[in-house]
Amino acid sequence: MKHHIAPLFCRPWTLNGMSPRLIESHYEHNYGAALNRLNSVTTELEALDVKTTPAPVISRLSRERTTLLNSTLLHELYFASLGGDGRSLPDTIADALASDFGSVDRWRQEFIALAEALTGDSGWILLTYVPRDGRLINHSASDHAESIAGGIPILALDMYEHAYHIEYGANTAAYIAAFMRNIHWGAVEARFADARTVSPPRSLDQPEFKHVPSITPEEVHEMLSSGKRLQIIDTRPRHYSTRAQDIVEGAVWRDPERIDEWMTSLSKDAPVVTFCVYGFHIGCQSAAALRKAGFDARYMAGGHYAWKAIKGPVKLFE
Ligand SMILES: [Fe+2]
Fold first, then answer.
1. Alpha helices in 121-171 (DSSP H)
2. CA 33, 39, 44, 49: dihedral to nearest 10 degrees?
3. How far is the CA of 143 from the centre of ligand 1 (A)?
4. pLDDT in tens, 63-119
5. How far is the CA of 162 from the centre of ligand 1 (A)?
6. Which of 146, 171, 172 has the alpha carbon at shortest distance from 159?
């Protein structure tokens, strides 16, 4: 056995409007089946001779394992989401929901709307923490294999028919309301605290330029849109600029090799933003040289292509 069964997290006899019979059946027949099948598929996959097995067979088994592993994990999260009174939100999670959704009520309405949208269909409704952005989002997963890369789900609502049918029939609204009444917010908060210890994905590291401040393309865009005075200098290398077709709207191109000549035309009263093609070196070096000369300069992270990727305005480079 590769994957071990998790004990039932919630105490079924304490739930409000969800009977032990419903939870027992769900735990035994659906969660249990997913776990057993997961172990069987994992064993089958690991026993394959990958040199002689056709690639589609490996792929099919691998996809099946992904689906079963997610079903197992999400069922465990579902049972660990129940057992509370649904109302007592600890401050930490209430503040996070208010910050990321506008208010706890708005979060609740969105979560319920996503669940209602799955009426007659199957899937999961999840509240997930995304370390990359340091925020929570609601989302539905219409099958077990849908998940957010790097996201950590902390609350799960099972919208597969087997989760409610024996007790609620087709009345999904009543089932959703019962789920919301039984959310164990203390357990959700504990998982949220764990999730927040996960670092975001590592960003581009340029140790040689760690002392040179940068600015994001979004910040530059915002500053330009608000009418802030900026001196934006495109310092793509001359050999590159000769074949470049476009340039950031509001930028001027200057040859990075001749920075000592053109820097005298810049003002020290307004910030300077430099950038090159991808944001690796030349834009950083230009910003460093300008700072050394007393300018309030920084380089635009990601360079010309990051600007284009956020649909920043460009004009023909002539
Ligand atoms: Fe289920």
1. 165-168
2. 160
3. 11
4. 999 999 999 999 999 999 999 999 999 999 999 999 999 999 999 999 999 999 998
5. 6
6. 172
Classified as helix, coil or strand, 134 is coil
Tracing tokens 């960003």 back to the chain, one arrives at 203
- Separation of 161 CA from ligand 1 center, angstroms? 8
Distance CA 162, CA 166 (A): 7
Tokens read off for 187: 């357990």
> Model-level pTM?
0.89
The closest alpha carbon to 180, from 112, 129, 105, belongs to: 112
Q: Mind giving me the DSSP string for 205-239?
A: --GGGTTS-EE-HHHHHHHHHTT---EEEE---HH
Q: How far is the CA of 189 from the centre of ligand 1 (A)?
A: 23
One DSSP character per residue, 15-40 reads: -SS--HHHHHHIIIIIIHHHHHHHHH
What distance in Å separates the CA atoms of residue 140 and residue 129, rounded to the nearest whole number?
14
3-state SS assignment for residue 127: strand
